[in-house]
Each structure stands twice: as C-alpha cells, then as structure tokens.
Structures
1.
Amino acid sequence: MDELLDYDEAMALFDPVLGLEVHVELNTASKMFCGCANHFGAEPNSNTCPVCLGLPGALPAVNATAIESAIRIGLSLNCDIATWCRFARKNYFYPDMTKDFQTSQYDEPLCFEGHVDVEVDGRTFRIAVERAHMEEDAGKLVHAGASGRIHGADYSLVDYNRAGTPLIEIVTKPVRGTGSMAPQVAKAYVAALRDTMRALGVSDVKMEQGSLRCDANVSLMPKGSDVLGTRTETKNVNSLRSIEAALTYEIRRQAAILACGGRVKQETRMWHEEGYTTAGRSKEEAEDYRYFPEPDLVPVAPSREWVEQLRSTLPENPAAKRVRLAAEWGMTEREFGDVLAADALDLIEATVAAGASPASARKWWLGELARVANAEGVELAAVGLTPAQVAEVQGLVDGGVVNDKLARQVIEGVLAGEGSPAEVVERRGLKVVSDDGALSAAVDAAIAADPDAAAKIRDGKVAAAGALIGSVMKAMRGQADAGRVRELILEKLS
C-alpha cells in the first residue's frame, strides 16, 4: 500500500493544483459520424457499420445535432464559439477503436475560453474552462475474470457499440487557490456540469454508465512556490463521491512522497472504489499522437446568427434555478439541501407542476419513494412512479379519498402495475370511510372496550382520545376518517 500523509499535514506543506477533464456523451439519436443508433445497453456490436468500424472506403459525415448540442454546451459554459474549426485525427493504439485513430479536435476547438462558478461552504470559486471540443468515443473492453479489470483477466472482449458516440471533452485550465477544499471544489464543479447538461437536455449524464466521466489531474506546489509540481491523472472516475475521494487520496500520496524528498511520477492512475489509486501508464514523456487535419470532413463554421439563435434556447442557469425554487417553495436550507442530496429537484419540480404542493411532493419523494429506491438499489427517478402519478396520489389525500397510510398502499399498487392511483383505490377498496353510521358503531365498540380511556376523556383529558382513535383505525383497517372519528368520540363522551 502507498504511504499517505495526514491530509491536514499535507495542506500545511503544499498547495494543490487541479486540472479536470470531463467527458460528456451526447444523447443524439445517431453516432457522431455515421447513422448507427446511439443507444446504451444494446446487444454487443449490434450498433455498428463500416464507418464506425473503420472499414476501408467508408466515409464519415458530421452529425448536425451533435454540433448544435456542442455549441449550446459551450454557451452555457460562457465560452467563445469558433467561427471556423476542423476535426483532426489523433493517432494512437486503440484496442477498442478499429481504425486506430480517434476523430477529435486538436488546436481548433469549437468552444474555448469559458468559465464555471461553483460555491462550496459559502465561498465562490471560478473554474476557468480552456476548451470544450468535439470528438468520438472509443468502444468498450469487457475483461473476463473475477476482478472485471484487465489485470488478472482470462481474456478480453470488445464491444464496438460505443465507438463513434458523440463526445464533448471539457478541459479546465490549472485550478489554483482552492487550498484544502480542492477535492470538494472538483466535486462541485463536476456536479455543476452534470446539472447543466441535464438542464440542456443534451445528455443523460449517468455517471454509472459512463455518459459523464472525469479524468482528475492534481499536482502539489510547496507553500510559497509558484512552480507547478508533477501531476498525476486519475482516469475515468465515474461518481461525484469518487472524484472527491480520489483527489484526497492522491494529494495525501503525493504529499508523502514529496515530504520524504522523493519525486512524483507523471502517470495515469486508476481509482478503486475500495478507496485507493494504482499506477496506470507512464506519461513522463510527451506522446506523439501525430495529429493532422481529418481529410474526409469539411470544416465546421457556425454562423453568428445560428449561434445567437441557439443562445436564445438556453435554459435557466441551474444555480439560479435552485435559488429561485428554494424561495418559491419556502423550504429551509436544510430541507432544500436534502432535496439536492437525493437528486430529487427535477422530480419535485415536475410533481409541483402537476398540481401537488412543494411540501407534499418533497414528502413522497424523500420518504416512501426514497425507501423504495433504496430497497431496489435504483436511482430515485427509476422507481417506476411518475411525478404526475405522485401528484395524483396527493390529490386523493387532499380530497379525503385516502389518508397517508392508505396512500402508501396506493403507491404499492401502482408500482405493481395495477393501474393509475384512482384505479388502485377502486380495485383494492382503499377509500376512507367517512359514513357516520359505520364510524359511530366502531367508536361505540372502542369506548366499550376501553372504559379507562373513556373515563379520562369524560374528566377532560382529551389527549386520551388518541387510544380510542387508534382502536377505531385498527378495527377499520386504517380506512376511517381519523378527524371525524375524533369528533364522534368527543361528542359521545363530552
């Protein structure tokens, strides 16, 4: 295992410098340079053609929607948009790219010189974006073996479905001045990019599926120095928590080496979810990718009119939207923080738009539905209930058709495929009983069964009504109107 320096000790000796490269897969219908379906989860090698397989004589054509998405991304990151740029061939041995080069952008990115502001613990950090350029993704290697990694694998299989997927790579300039907050700032930055892509609708940004992933670079400078240290690049980190943890580990590892007079090797590192990084390949010497302009593609030259038209389609800034919704919904900082932590903001917003109050929408998504999601090991958005259905459930509660307890059974029925919330109520017979005749008989039975509680109520101890209400609710399988039951008890015993 690596020697690690205590984090606080590391921060007393060194200043971290970050460099973040975030890859975003676009959700266009087809791939970047061919007409193959751009769809995650298809049968291996089923979404392929001569172009994305690099067969001789196959000619690429640029996906116009991908260009549009890239420009909208650049505008959202406060970038300048090039008036003219080209694609280039990046020559490299790609075992998962049959043509052995990647079509990318080299010295002429479409989007450049932008910035993103993020807030961490009340401080605002401006992250300078050097470039956001277009390229195609590589395929995927599947390593057969217990570890699922190339080390120790019996053999490897190649799935070319992902090869040619439209990709935007967003590269920061060196990020200085974050101090001990560097890992949290990196996490907040990637979270901000994820929220922006989701708001734009250009990617599903599912980090666990690789549609958004981060290469996290970090180096250390001795306190008081302005000379950049040797960096390492932790590749393809695919969760926000892991970005923070991987950078924290690398800072401690590098600090331990430097504090003992050693030298950090410039290399890629692999992040292991157990909580550590391991060496990948050396990057101590500059690699010659032999870039040259792609001869089979025409340059991209977006008109200023088109760029401004796309600017007009940009959604509300996610950070500004959060501030607005928190105020409109009247939630405390802690309540709203819980919404963000659960990744439930969009779900609650859609539920409110469907007619529920913010408080009730938050109650269902962070309560019963979060419990279901945790039990099934899925994201909250994948539990199987739509915001409109949640709003309908709450409408049944507001209308006195069901109470909260019965509403949970309604949700259970909807998730089981028994129909809409209203249909589940009818099929399961879940309506609240508010008929005075039935309730009065149940109240009389409860009073007879618990004379002590009845005596206390007659003596003015109204709180004792809770026991009788509980008895009635139990007898009527939770379907009694609790408010009316209380009224009848007090009427009979006053």
2.
Amino acid sequence: MLQKIKGLIRELGFLNTILHLTNYFFLRFKIPFRVFKYYFVAQRLYEKSLLPDRRGRNIGISDIPSKVKPHPCPRPNAVIIDRYQQGAVCLGAYKEHEFAGCFWYITDKYKEDEVNCLYKLANIDSAWDFDVYVVPKFRMSPVFLKLWDDASKHLIEQGIHWSLSRISAFNARSISSHLRMGAQLVGWACFICTGSFQLTIASIFPFLHISFNKSSYPVFILMPPKN
C-alpha cells in the first residue's frame, strides 16, 4: 500500500494524491461526500494531422445526430439529452461500421454534468471539448488520433483555433496525454460536494464559491493563453 501511495505521489503530486485518497475513502465507506479536481487546459488546433496518412484509413468519422436511438456513447440518457439541448455536437468514429468512439464539443458555453458549474468561452475562436470516449477494445488503435484530427479540421473550418477542456487531476494518463499533445494549463478548480451543497476553490475567478442548491453555481470564463 505504501508503495502504491508513493507511486501516486510521483504521478499526481502530494496534494492531488491526498484529495484522490480522500475521495476514495468517501466512496469506500459510502460517506456522502465527493471530491473532484479539474485542470483546465487549452490545446492549439492545427490542420496538420497527428496521425500518419497510412494509418486510420478504415476509420470513418461522422456526426451523430440527437435522433439516433440508442445513442452509442455509453452515458446516461438524461446526460446525452442535456448535451444536445445545450447545443453540443458529437462526432462518432466507426471502424468498418462498428462504433469505436466519439468526441463531444460545443462552441459557446457548457454546463458541467459531473459537478455544478458553467464554463463560458471568452473568445469566438475557441471551442470546449469534453468526454472524448474510445471503446476499450480500440484504445490501442488509431481511433483517438483519428477523432482528434477530424475534429480539429472540422473546427478550423469554422474559424476555431483553440480547444479548451477539463481533465481530472486524478487521471495521470490523461494529464500526460494532453501534455504530450501540447496542451497548456490555464487554471484549476476543486469541488467538494455533498447533496446539494458544493464548495468550490479555484485558481481563476470566482476563486471561491459556496452553493446550497442546484440553481447556484460558479461560472468560469475560460480563454486560451495569450502567448
């Protein structure tokens, strides 16, 4: 156990490890508290593909409309409906007609479905991407890069050159993957939740927020780095 904790500290840092273990403790003993911490990152979009031309040719990317039932993205139906009602777009990846993954994005604002907060984009040349999902059997294949390349081209055609997103501070693999692709940190937020109560501490405005019901939530105005 001690070696596992040391490994987590190496991957996540001391504070994130403490938060992660606290959340695990709450879940393990069914204590009605949850801890979430997100990093907000910005990724520059480029027309040049990350995937070599010879790879991913048998993977097709197409828009998944809201009328598709059942939706192939493995999320609760209420969450799927809410995403489309907010104006989100879902791009699906299909390998020889088999669903392999999807990429969600929105170009204005997005109400988070895991905690109670709202993300707003300050720049018209930015999009918010979230829930890039790849079916487990395809996670060692080119599906992720194919999704990213096609989504990037699709967004650039709309005049969008930055994609912002949030990643869990407890997911070392996702953090590493984003950094390898050139993502830049633009802020972070930590949420402590129980029932309808939520305490938010963040590195960006509003910095500190306390809510006692679902109608009260922090609004984060996000923008890409200036450099």
3.
Amino acid sequence: MSRLLEVKSIYKSFMIHHLGKRIHAVNDISFSLDAGKFIGIIGKSGSGKSTILKLIYRTYLPERGEIIYNSERFGKIDLMKASERDMIYLRQYEIGYVSQFLSVMPRTTAREIVEQSVLEMGKTQEEAKVIAEEALTHFDLDPGLWDNYPATFSGGEKLRLNIASAIVKKPRLLLLDEPTASLDDASKLKVRKAIEKLKDEGTTLIGIFHDLEFMEGLCDKVFDFQKGKCLEGVGA
C-alpha cells in the first residue's frame, strides 16, 4: 500500500488584531494516509479541524511543518512549498474539496456548475451533460432547479450541489468538511453511497464529521484532534 499523504508537525495560528491576541488553531498535528483509505477527523467545534483541511488544500499556509503529497504528476511534493501554478493544477486535477458552503460564479446554473467540473477533466460537452444529470439526479436535486441559480437554493440543496460538483471529478484525494451538516437522513445516505463508490474506485479521503454514526464502517481510521492521535477500533 503506497503512502499518499503525510502531515508532519503542522502549526497554524491566527492573529486577532482588534484583541491583540494570537489564536493557535493547529498545534503540532501529524498523521499519514495510504492511497485508497479514508480517515475521519473528530473533535469539538473550534478545535482546528477545518483548518487542517484548508492547510492541505493550501487555502492557508502554516508557520511550521510539512504536508507531503504523492502527486500523480509531480511525485512527492510538499504542498507548503509548491508553486501557485502547481497548486492550481492539483486542485483542478487531483485534489478535491467540499466545504459546508457553496461559492460559485454568479449567474451560473446548477447544471453548469457540475458540467464545468466534468469539462475540466477533459470530457466532451455531451459527456459532461450526461454525467452532470446523473450526479444531480443521484443527489435528489429537483430537475426544476437544474437551470436555476444556486443563490435561490436552500442550505441542503447547496451542499448537495457542492458535493456533486466535487465527486464527478473523481479526485485522487478528496477533502470533506462536514459534508452531511445540513442534510436529512435520505440525503446522508446518498452522500454515503457516493463516498463508498469513490473509495471503491481508489479515491483517498479525509473527512470531518460530527455524526459518528455516519462514520461507522466508512472510515479506515479516526483521528481525534483533541488527543492528537488516531484512535484504535473506531470507524472501521
């Protein structure tokens, strides 16, 4: 089993200027992940769980540490030192990110958002149309919404659209920031099935969850942010 990701002694803090105070969000966190595996991250709100995903996606830069990713194109690369051009490539072709919030270009319909994700992977317009419709159907987005702008969508609809647009790219590494936060049980089941399919096809995943029941049998291991270590016999 090949190692896909190694997070080594990462530190990240934020300066709250109006309070004159520095907040330590991630303090000496280390873990590793083999290709095709799924690690779930747990911990109380505000403990820095989302920050670690943003560090891997390089939305943030740490003060110290390394994040070594075994890229299909670049080989082993420290994401903290990668060029902006290389990170743009990795985000487009290898590393996906699903947040709790949908951020898209204005006047872009739900159908166009998912189709664009497919087109970025080199598919034809016709292939993109078929794949997008399959994804939108799987996540129970009403066909009447497909050609509407997501600004009018509910929180749950936006989240399902966000997941659909990330999953159709079948990334090598997928980062999930509470992907079931505002979903009902039926929608959670759809997300679980999509994650299981991706994992079966070789995608490596890191997910933040408050729903421990959802994680059961899905994650290969669980990392407790408070304890700074992986828990044995949990999640798998």
4.
Amino acid sequence: MKRFILMLQFLTRIPINMNLDVNEDDFFEGVIYFPLVGLIIGMFVVAFYYIGTILSDKLLGAVFAVIIEVFITGGLHLDGLADTFDGVYSNRQKDRILEIMKDSRLGTNGALALFVLLILKIVLINSLKVPDVYAVLLLMPIFAKLNVVLASRIASPARKQGMGNLFIGKVSTGQFLIAFIIAIIPSLIFLKIVPVIGLMLIFSILYVRHISNRIDGMTGDTLGSLSELSEVAFLLFIVILFR
C-alpha cells in the first residue's frame, strides 16, 4: 500500500497528506502500480466527461475530460512531451539534445506539440460513441501508464543521472507482467479492446527504438512524452478500429 500511495503522489497532484518513509527501491518496486494510478486518473476523466455532457454536450464533455487530466497530473507528462519535442526534434547531436531537454523554457517545437496533442485528444474523444466513450476514457490512462512500464523495462537510461533513472533499465520482466495483469483486469469491461492492447505495446516498443536511436536511451521526459502520445494513440486506434 505504501508504494501505491507513493506512485499516486508521484504521478498525480491528488492531495494525500501522508509523509512516507521511502527510498529509491520503493520507486522502482512501485512501478507495478502505474496502471492502477492510471485507473484512478481514468475515473476522474470519466466523471468530468459526464459532467460536461450533462451541462452541454459531448464536445464540452471532451474538453472537461482533457482539462481534468491536466489538472490531476499537474501537467507532469505534458512537460515531458514539450521538452522531448524541443530537444529530440531540434536536429542536434545527443549532448545538445539532452541540454535542450533540461532547459525549462518552452520552445516552438514543444509549444506546437502541446497544442496539437490537446486538440487531437478533444477531437478524438468527441468522436467516440456513447456508451463506449466511458470505457475508453477509463482505460486510456491505464494503458498509457502500462506503456511507460514497458518502456522502462526495455530501454536503457540516456543520462547518467535523472528522475527517469528511478525506473529506466531497472524494471524486471516480472514487474511488467504484474503491471500488465493489473491493466488487463479493468479491460474486461470492454473486451473488444483486446486488439488495441497489442497495438499499444507495439507503439511503446517502436517509440523506445525511435528515441534510443536519437539519444541512446530514454529519459524521464521521454517517458512522460510516451505517456501522452500513448493516450492519443489509444484513442486513434479505437476510432480507426471501431468507426
């Protein structure tokens, strides 16, 4: 339970007033709870989507769903997305890319990535049919977080030090399998999602390969970027397969 609370504090801004006695091992051991944290986030997303539809229509529901996720996560992964796009797609050498990613200033590539991603989320969520949309929104953060666990399992760290090094290259196959089982259980409410699960894992593997080709590994920023891009990929796969 301590490690689950730790992951909830780490990945969200949900106010939990508990001072935990933890060490570095608690972080990478707690990685199995990533999908469970995703489930908590998904519950908020579903609730606010429903509120938006009650107040107006599906479009407002989609806007509310996106806004509450940004609020709940504190924009943690969006920051990683912006830093990744500013650095990786700056067409520089590895050392310079890593320097750019550490820069707190928002560049053009990062701003464009944020804008496009948020718009895509709203449009894709708005295109989903009721009642499927509720299951999709619940499961979306779960499998995005599972992709982060998989990436941490198969990648190596691009930096000698960094927040991402708490997880990258330290996750075992057993931990990934436990996280996978945790992610699969909620998906039983929406069995036709099964083909999408495979596509999501493939997406994670291809993303890790792509980023590793540029900077010889992964960082905390690229893990955050993967989480955000995985949500868009999840929605896109749903829209394409079930249109």
